[in-house]
Specification:
The complex is a heterodimer. By secondary structure, chain A is an all-beta fold. Chain A has strands at 3-6, 11-14, 19-21, 23-26, 32-38, 44-50, 56-59, 62-65, 75-77, 86-93, 100-102, 106-111. In chain A, strands 2, 5, 6, 10, 11 and 12 form a 6-stranded mixed β-sheet that branches. In chain A, strands 3-9-8-7 form a 4-stranded antiparallel β-sheet, with no helix packed on it. Chain B is 0% helix and 50% strand. In chain B, strands 2, 4, 5, 6, 9, 10 and 11 form a 7-stranded mixed β-sheet that branches. Chain B has a 4-stranded antiparallel β-sheet with strand order 1-3-8-7, with no helix packed on it. Classes of the chains: A mainly beta, B mainly beta.
């Protein structure tokens, strides 16, 4: 079945460092891809999405490109802030049934 | 506009008991989905309801059930609670069954002792 694999955390960075969180997926058909963020004690918030190959999703300085040839959707940010500390989830939906399939999450901690 | 609201926010139950969790979707949204998030893992899909009918079910035992009401709110019921049911239960609402963004509530933290 469809699945999502993320790089394991926790990831600890200094403020203004470059961030990459790797995400690869396995899916039949043409899924839509998402990054969600979960701040401590809160639910999930959609960070960005891409619905077809070569699309780039971006929001709040974060970006990710849908790479069909490598089945990847890596999250990047050029300069992280302390306020970016959270857990990040990569997810896909198959556009048939609407359910989201999540990776295991990557905890990011940004130190001042 | 109010977002997705879930109640209660926290509860503690004893093994073998029954629990009901509630979710009110964003106004105008017709689809509600439930997810279970065990500590340190990603959310796992439990159910999707659309227009008051079950449209999808994840790999969960029959102890888990749900329903959607005419006002599109939803309940998740879990019978015969096990320690392993301790988790954050998330509700997500979306405008339609597929192809539209899912908005998540803050979740209900269930602890089974």
């Amino acid at each position: 079945g469809d699945s999502v694999t993320q790089m394991e955390g926790p990831v600890t960075l200094s403020e203004e460092a470059f961030l990459t969180i790797n995400c690869t997926y396995t899916a039949t058909g043409y899924p839509s891809l998402f990054w969600y963020v979960q701040y401590p004690g809160e639910g999930l918030q959609l960070l960005l999405k891409a619905t077809k190959a070569d699309d780039k999703g971006s929001n709040k300085g974060f970006e990710a490109t849908y790479r069909k040839e490598t089945t990847s959707f890596h999250l990047e940010k050029g300069s992280v802030q302390v306020s970016d500390s959270a857990v990040y989830f990569c997810a896909l939906t198959d556009n048939q049934g609407g359910k989201l399939i999540f990776g295991q999450g990557t905890e990011l901690s940004v130190k001042p | 506009d109010a977002g997705v609201t879930q109640s209660p926010t926290h509860l503690i139950k004893t093994r073998g008991q029954h629990v009901t969790l509630r979710c009110s979707p964003i106004s105008g949204h017709k689809s509600v989905s439930w997810y279970q998030q065990v500590l340190g893992q990603g959310p796992q899909f439990i159910f999707q309801y659309y227009e008051k009918e079950e449209r999808g079910r994840g790999n969960f035992p029959d102890r888990f059930s749900a329903r959607q009401f005419p006002n599109y709110s939803s309940e998740l019921n879990v019978n015969a609670l096990l320690l392993g049911d301790s988790a954050l239960y998330l509700c997500a609402s979306s405008l339609d069954r597929v192809g539209t963004e899912a908005f998540f509530g803050q979740g209900t933290r269930l602890t089974v002792v």
